[in-house]
């Protein structure tokens, strides 16, 4: 990777800018670069907004950039932030393995690196990790399928299908492991049947957590395995995938008086999914309060830069292949029709108008 050349070019560009404006960035406690994967899911927009505010409250200017789910774009953005002289980097990687060169340079310059929500892997040059309990997210999703099954009379066999997240995202593997810890005993005992037999993570993964990709896989599963049989539940690992799965199910008549909707799980409490929960198309989602994660992350940045002790609450779960990254885990919350109002509206995460 030609990072030194890129950095040199960007440095020259920022030096030229400095001649004109005096400085590439405004004078304050310094600039913090934030690199997020994409804007198509509302959660990353809320993450960005909350982090900019939390950093501002502590005296920092944020340089927030989105990488349009393109790995080279994200690497470039991070290299340019380094060249412009950021004090810290907050990165939610598209592909966790792609940052080792850039971060080696960050380390040399004593720039603090925080892995945000997703783990940066294969490098020791990452200082801290702020995320939600991803294994716990999967456990909540698995439990919500078991609860729905019990509420509907525990009929056997209960037909389920499984979707996974993106294989280049460590979170996808953690969520899968958490959900499997709950569902496997039911699958092994034959109470839950997966008619497609597609269970292993590599068989069910969805590249870039893409809803359209999930929709076409669901279309194929429905036509190949559920001609006569009713699909009772779909374990979907996040809200983007849930939207694709719901469209597919509705396309063949699920959610009508003749054919009840399948149980569908999710993650992120995206606005469109809360609406789907209110309509009865989606059963649950997992709310991860990005305001809390943003505030934890801003504290990490400030404490690390000012030499204070950085608060972490997990020092064993997140081995990134080069080291165990000290982590702060925020607790995820299961949301359904019964509690979305208190968790999301009363708490001020969404206005009533947004979810109507
Ligand atoms: C995040 C999820 C998100 C997914 C797709 C994961 O790394 O933890 O909240 O739904 O990426 O963006």
User: What CATH first level of the largest domain would be assigned?
Assistant: Alpha Beta
- Ends: how far apart? 48 Å
Beta-strand percent range: 5-15%
Largest sheet: 6 strands, parallel
Q: What is the architecture of the largest domain at the second tier of CATH? A: 3-Layer(aba) Sandwich
Number of strands: 12
Give the % helix.
Answer: 40-55%
**Unreliable spans:** 8-23
Give me some keywords for this one.
single chain, 356 residues, alpha/beta, Rossmann fold, four-stranded parallel sheet, 13 helices, 12 strands, binds beta-D-glucopyranose, SBP_2_dom, Peripla_BP_I, D-xylose ABC transporter, periplasmic substrate-binding protein, signal
What is the topological layout?
Elements: H1 3-21, E1 31-36, H2 42-57, E2 61-66, H3 71-83, E3 88-91, H4 100-108, E4 112-116, E5 128-132, H5 134-151, E6 158-162, H6 170-188, E7 192-193, H7 201-204, H8 211-225, E8 233-235, H9 239-251, E9 263-264, H10 271-279, E10 285-287, H11 290-305, E11 327-330, E12 333-335, H12 340-346, H13 352-355
Parallel strand pairs: 1-2, 1-3, 3-4, 4-5, 5-11, 6-7, 6-8, 8-9
Antiparallel strand pairs: 10-12
Bound molecules: beta-D-glucopyranose.
Beta-D-glucopyranose binds at residues 41, 43, 117-118, 169, 171, 209, 238, 267-268.
């Amino acid at each position: 990777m030609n990072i030194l050349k890129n950095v040199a070019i960007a440095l020259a560009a920022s030096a030229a800018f400095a001649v004109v404006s005096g400085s590439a960035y405004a004078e304050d406690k310094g600039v913090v670069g934030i690199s997020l994967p994409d804007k198509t899911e509302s959660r990353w927009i809320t993450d960005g907004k909350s982090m900019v505010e939390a950093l501002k409250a502590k005296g920092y200017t944020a340089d927030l950039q989105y990488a349009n789910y393109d790995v080279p774009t994200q690497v470039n953005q991070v290299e340019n932030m380094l060249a412009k002289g950021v004090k810290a980097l907050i990165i939610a990687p598209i592909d966790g393995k792609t940052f080792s060169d850039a971060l080696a340079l960050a380390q040399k310059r004593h720039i603090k690196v925080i892995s945000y929500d997703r783990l940066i892997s294969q490098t020791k040059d990452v200082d801290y990790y702020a995320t939600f309990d991803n294994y716990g997210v999967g456990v909540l999703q698995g439990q919500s399928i078991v609860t729905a099954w019990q509420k509907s009379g525990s009929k056997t066999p209960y037909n389920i299908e499984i979707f996974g997240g993106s294989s280049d995202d460590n979170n996808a593997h953690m969520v899968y492991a958490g959900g499997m810890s709950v569902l496997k005993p039911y699958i092994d005992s034959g109470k839950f049947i997966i008619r497609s037999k597609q269970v292993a993570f590599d068989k069910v993964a969805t590249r870039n957590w893409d809803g359209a990709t999930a929709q076409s896989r669901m279309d194929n599963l429905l036509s190949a395995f559920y001609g006569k049989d009713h699909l009772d539940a779909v374990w979907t690992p996040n809200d983007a995938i849930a939207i694709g799965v719901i469209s597919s199910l509705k396309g063949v008549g699920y959610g009508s008086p003749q054919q009840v909707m399948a149980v569908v799980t999710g993650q992120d409490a995206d606005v469109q999914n809360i609406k789907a929960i209110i309509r009865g198309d989606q059963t649950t989602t997992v709310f991860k309060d990005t305001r809390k994660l943003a505030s934890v992350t801003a504290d990490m940045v400030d404490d690390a830069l000012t030499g204070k002790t950085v608060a972490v609450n997990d020092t064993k779960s997140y081995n990134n292949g080069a080291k165990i990254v000290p982590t702060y885990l925020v607790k995820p919350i299961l949301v359904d029709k019964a509690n979305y109002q208190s968790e999301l509206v009363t708490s001020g995460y969404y206005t009533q108008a947004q979810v109507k």
